[in-house]
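Comment thread on ticket #2218

A.B. wrote:
> Attaching the input chain for the structure job we discussed in standup.
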Amino acid sequence: MASRTRTGLREALDLGALARVMRLMGRRLWLYAPAVVLYGATWALCFNVVLAFIFKDVVDAAARGDVTLLRRALVLAAATFLGGTPVLMAAYYVSSVTVKRTLTDLRVRVFHHLADLPLAAFETQHSGDLISRATNDLARIGEVYVDQLSRVVMALFMGVVGMASIFVLDWRVGTIALVLGLVSMAANAAFAPPMRTAGEAIQRHSATLTERLMDLLQSLAVTRMFGLERTIHGHFSMSNAALAGAAEAMGRVRAASETVNLTLRWMRSVGFLGLGLYLYTQEALALGSVWAIVALQGNADSMFSSLGAMVANVQQSLAAAGRVFALLDRPAEPERLSVAPATPEAGAETAGAAEVAGAGAAVATHDLHFRYPGSAAGEGALRGVDLAVAPGRVAALVGPSGGGKSTLFKLLLGLYPPERGSVWIQGQPAAALSLAAWRARIAYVPQEAYLFAGTIEENILMGRPGATMAAVVAAAQAADAHDFILGLAEGYATQVGERGAKLSGGERQRIAIARALLQDAPILLLD
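C.D. wrote:
> Ran it. Output below, let me know if you need it in another format.
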């Protein structure tokens, strides 16, 4: 039974995920771990186990009329309180600080990784799910450090020391307590897998609910113009019902687990009390020892039955941690893009043709092929595109909607690697440049001009941080935005709102053009 119990707990805890959560602390683990252990040991010893022996002395003192035992109990109570309280405060402070700093670093790490992901990661997954991973799921990792691990450590100390103390008081009672405790632990381990499954479902449906909420906030105008309120509300209600169903499933498993724990705890408490009183009537155990055993048995419960409930809570947090780790494990955008030639046999010929096409051109492509991830074979967005634009020239791409104009821009910006072919920037193969150097040579204005929450001046300065106000005004004038900006009450200090919502579409577009012009890059792409 002990072997099955260890196996069940090992599977329940998902030690690999737990170890990775702990590695997030880095060197702080050397402060956090001793602090948590010291906190759990002090709480278990000073305010639980020692307290049981204090009760023992008090009961025996009352039964025997022994003032010495009462005096010893008072001294022991004062010593443990005065000695244990400062240790608890110091250990809690150290563990709390290390956790807060670890979570702060993790938030920054997740944010930076999101910023470094390739564009395909955002075009194939709802942003609401990514936000949920970076907020809700990350917060659940904090619960592992702050609450769950400290409780597990405390339960272990209380249980181990409590069991040892029971054995010291009476080995027969201790043996029975150990056997019953292992039975309780095995019962709790059986509930761990469904807890994990339910926890993963809750996190997944929470992310979907965030997606539905973002859809509502970002489509209010469209929703009202097309009368889609019932449809959007229906989608939200369905997601909310799914989350409620997952929470109910978790509730059912928890209810069954708590019922088993409560039943076993009641049976142990009543059984030990009856056994202790029987041994007392047989003069095999002192009355104070009976009282101490009953109290210590509660500490053993913390390790055996309560530990199972704590493992269940850790499971739900580890399910959330798995979603965060899945995000962090996604490969970031490479520093350089590699492009394969058309065929190995035609490699030299293709490279030579590309070099001729790119020589002297500001922007050039040769035999450019591209297919979006997940597209079927033969459904390429670009097939064999050859393009060359000389420096100082203006070129326009004309074609039907969906013809690949914006897709070509994405490849010129290095947002996607070509399936085949090459891109040349200012006479150099783009694949030989780092993406940072590649994009520094290009200013870009997208179809949907995105503005950051802040002022008009701050948005234009995104093109070249640190530029003078005169340069900002010159860029706005060149973009035909200066006059309308001066017509606003606060001019360049006007707040644009989220995504530039306080401005019209045309005004946002002109500010985006001014931002691109301020960058003063040799190549300007207007989508």
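A.B. wrote:
> Thanks. Noting for the ticket: The beta strands are 363-370, 382-389, 420-425, 428-429, 442-445, 523-526.
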